[in-house]
From TrEMBL:
Domain USP: 271-796
Cellular compartments per GO CC: cytoplasm
Gene that this sequence comes from: USP13
Origin species: Trichechus manatus latirostris (Florida manatee)
Functional description taken from the UniProt entry: Deubiquitinating enzyme that removes conjugated ubiquitin from specific proteins to regulate different cellular processes.
Enzyme class: hydrolase
One of the Pfam families matching this protein, by short name: zf-UBP_var
Residues reported in the UniProt entry to bind Zn(2+): C146, C149, C166, H179
Protein name: Ubiquitin carboxyl-terminal hydrolase
Similarity field: Belongs to the peptidase C19 family.
Domain UBA: 587-628, 662-702
Length: 798
């Protein structure tokens, strides 16, 4: 009752021992079969009218056969003394007020429920009698632009005259020039809908007159006035477009194995995740991640230590939330088969449908998606983008020297050749997944595809039912060949010619990861920039050999391009600012760095790009990356002469925790003044990039720290800052080995684009395939390995 953090039964004792806080409120919901009256009528579902808790109720228990009773009491530790609530007589007024506030408060997760959020919006008073001008305006499905400026995002359609104008400070915090608001002030037309948010379920509508987001119950009619059919916009989770129903049904049935009777699985490792509304991308990735032993050991294996030394607010700690989720998935506590008596009762009632509730990842999703514009929304997302986002979080929050994401990391050798001089340049970069293009030209059923396309067009023209879908069959070998073929380099600057020239690039593996993640690049953009999906079947192998893709380095007879950097082109209006000040490395704009890193560029390269472009934003830094990405030191840590050490704040994330990471003496002095050893303070700072607060957390989470003799010698021998600054940084951590792999998991997507549809995951456990479809976990009968999107391979020991 001090921090208002909630704990389960098995963790509340740990919190009491750790903090000494002794007063806790116990909240329980008792669910039981409903007792019926003499006439057979149903009695009230909630039996305790004094306590009304806003708790999640299992949807399976919302029938007329069940009722529930809420109970609340204060528990005083360590004696477990209980005081039933409400209890005005025995409790001080302040405690009573606090208890009443907790009991009457709404669940914070209601805010994340899109249906609840939508229902709380008021209906606009202008919706019923909205005037719409008959001016012939028709809104195209794409290519929108503000009518008063060149902005192409955050655009709003005025529902009276069809004007498309940019927003400014609306409720979604998007930027703009405010032309939609200016238009309202000029005309008085009250309602506007945000383009890009329209789905068959509704859209974001704003009322200028009422100055708040609203609901428009006649939105479909108002949009149809301007030629927009809501049913043709992309759907939500498990939703389909009208004109896609026939071709998509087969895909959904095949991937979810809907035509077969699947046996539910229970026990450790067979726990599902509840869908929070378009959260299946997260569920599928996390199921695959926690099937990997290195992640199991790093988090669930270290559960006592992580929980014991977690921050005072564990809801804001990545490692705590990862451990909590992993424990929920792997412990088996939340995946227990129904007892025999329940099964018999279900058979008698002819309702033999074993229910799997799964666990809710609400707190985990809230934390990992915090401050991310896409993952923090309730829209569907790309599982591959979330996978990289998660790897980035693991890198930034590693537990001491242990980093489970090392199993995915590998080095890519890129060979670029100047077509005029035939000279070459070899560079290496870090990557975490292999992206394979879809070689459509290699389809083995081209004649069937041509015939299907002709029948489809004829059916559409005559408004007849579409023919049965014919899916392109692509050999995996063709995709692998397309990956290894040379590609043209746009705007290549040849250091041999000191000018732009034609260049070709080939990529090979400089190292092979322990776990290889392969993405089939099924998603692309059409000519109208609408996301589209290649509906293809790829014969993915169970055993994969990519040893022939091993990099060979500079070959005899090859001549390297001169090591000369191209000139940096800086906008004229920014030159004075850039030249007038030298940025301190600690002042680098980390938001721009992370924005670039999530595009797939190495973290160190992103930091250098932001530094050398003077914190002028991600766009200018991106241009620097394009110019410099072929340089041999492209991904090496940023080192600034005169600062006495490597300036990279992310150096420790890539293993640079040695001589090039000497912490400032003033921060060391602060920690030692608290009673900690100097060597302990230095090592903590070096592990957390000189962040005082994180270093203290590191010390508390590493109680087993012992003074390392080698570490002491290293510090004594390198007390001179100049020597430290000249030390060669440690390279990226990779676990190289054989290029032979075995498939153990894959994630599949159903739908027309990453903005819609549904994800499921198949994992091979104990010699059999298991399908994870949100909260449902079943033995797979026909795993659709040819329709996957992301594939997870483990190395076969040589």
């Amino acid at each position: 009752m001090n921090t208002f953090l909630a704990f389960g039964r098995e963790h509340v004792e740990r919190h009491f021992r750790k903090t000494g806080q002794s007063v806790y409120m116990l909240l329980k919901r008792h669910v039981r079969e409903k007792v019926r009256g003499a006439s057979g009528g149903a009695l009230p579902r909630r039996r305790n009218s004094k306590i009304v808790l806003d708790l999640d109720t299992d949807d399976d228990l919302n029938s007329d056969d069940y009722e529930y009773e809420d109970e609340a009491k204060l528990v005083i530790f360590p004696d477990h003394y209980e005081i039933a609530l409400p209890n005005i007589e025995e409790l001080p007024a302040l405690v009573t007020i606090a208890c009443d506030a907790v009991l009457s408060s709404k669940s914070p997760y209601r805010k994340q429920d899109p249906d609840t959020w939508e229902n709380e919006l008021p209906i606009s008073k202008y919706a019923n009698n909205l005037t719409q001008l008959d001016n012939g305006v028709r809104i195209p499905p794409s290519g929108w632009k503000c009518g008063r400026c060149d902005l192409r995002e955050n655009l709003w359609l005025n529902l009276t005259d069809g004007s498309v104008l940019c927003g400014k400070w609306f409720f979604d915090s998007s930027g703009g020039n405010g032309h939609a608001l200016e238009h309202y002030r000029d005309t008085g037309y009250p309602l506007a809908v945000k383009l890009g948010t329209i789905t068959p379920d509704g859209a974001d509508v704003y009322s200028f007159q009422e100055e708040e987001p609203v609901l428009d119950p006649h939105l479909a009619k108002h949009l149809a006035h301007f030629g927009i059919d809501m049913l043709h916009m992309h759907g939500t989770e498990n939703g389909l477009r009208d004109n896609d129903i026939k071709p998509r049904i087969s895909e959904w049935e095949v991937i979810q194995e809907s035509g077969t009777k699947l046996k539910p699985m229970y026990g450790p490792g067979y726990t599902g995740l509840k869908n929070l509304g378009n959260s299946c991308y997260l569920s599928s990735v996390m199921q695959a991640i926690f099937s990997i032993p290195e992640f199991q050991r790093a988090y669930v294996g270290n559960l006592p230590r992580i929980f014991d030394y977690s921050p005072l607010d564990p809801t804001q700690d990545f490692n705590t939330q990862m451990t909590k989720l992993g424990h929920g998935l792997l412990s088996g506590q939340y995946s227990k088969p129904p007892v025999k008596s329940e099964l018999i009762e279900q058979v008698i009632k002819e309702e033999h449908k074993p229910q799997q509730n799964g666990i809710s990842p609400r707190m985990f999703k809230a934390f990992v998606s915090k401050s991310h514009p896409e993952f923090s929304s309730n829209r569907q997302q790309d599982a591959q983008e979330f996978f990289l986002h998660l790897v980035n979080l693991v890198e930034r929050n590693r537990i001491g020297s242990e980093n489970p994401s090392d199993v995915f990391r590998f080095l890519v050798e890129e060979r670029i050749q100047c077509c005029q001089t035939r000279k070459v340049r070899y560079t290496e970069r870090v990557d975490y997944l292999m992206q394979l293009p879809v070689a459509m030209e290699a389809a083995t059923n081209k004649d069937e595809l041509i015939a299907y396309e002709l029948m489809r067009r004829e059916a559409e023209a005559n408004k007849r039912p579409l023919p049965e879908l014919v899916r392109a069959k692509i050999p995996f070998s063709a995709c692998l060949q397309a990956f290894s073929e040379p590609e043209n380099v746009d705007d290549f600057w040849s250091s041999a010619l000191q000018a732009k020239s034609a260049g070709v690039k080939t990529s090979r593996f400089a190292s092979f990861p322990e776990y290889l993640v392969v993405q089939i690049k099924k998603f692309t953009f059409g000519l109208d920039w609408v996301p589209k999906k290649f509906d293809v079947s790829v014969d993915m192998p169970d055993l994969l050999d990519i040893n022939h893709l091993r990099a060979r380095g500079l070959q005899p007879g090859e001549e390297e391009l001169p090591d000369i950097s191209p000139p940096i082109v800086i906008p004229e209006d920014s030159k004075d600012r850039l030249m007038s000040q030298l940025i301190d490395p600690s002042d680098i704009d980390e938001s721009s760095v992370m924005q670039l890193a999530e595009m797939g560029f190495p973290l160190e390269a992103c930091r250098k790009a932001v530094y050398f472009t003077g914190n002028m934003g991600a766009e200018v830094a991106f241009n620097w990356i394009i110019v410099h990405m072929e340089e041999p030191d492209f991904a090496e840590p940023l080192t600034i002469p005169g600062y006495g050490r490597a300036a990279s704040a992310g150096a420790s994330a890539f293993g640079a925790t040695g001589l090039d990471n000497q912490p400032p003496e003033e921060i060391v002095a602060i920690i030692t003044s608290m009673g900690f050893q100097r060597n302990q303070a230095v090592q903590a700072l070096r592990a957390t990039n000189h962040n005082l607060e994180r270093a203290l957390d590191w010390i508390f989470s590493h109680p087993e720290f012992e003074e390392d003799g080698d570490f002491v010698i290293e510090m004594e021998n390198n007390a001179n800052a100049n020597i430290i600054s000249e030390a060669k940084p440690e390279g990226p951590r990779v676990k190289d080995g054989s290029g032979m792999y075995e498939l153990f998991a894959f994630i599949s997507h159903m739908g027309t684009s990453t903005m819609s549809g549904h994800y499921v995951c198949h994992i091979k456990k104990e010699g059999r395939w298991v399908i994870y479809n949100d909260h449902k976990v079943c033995a797979s009968e026909r795993p659709p390995k040819d329709l996957g999107y992301m594939y997870f391979y483990r190395r076969i020991p040589s």
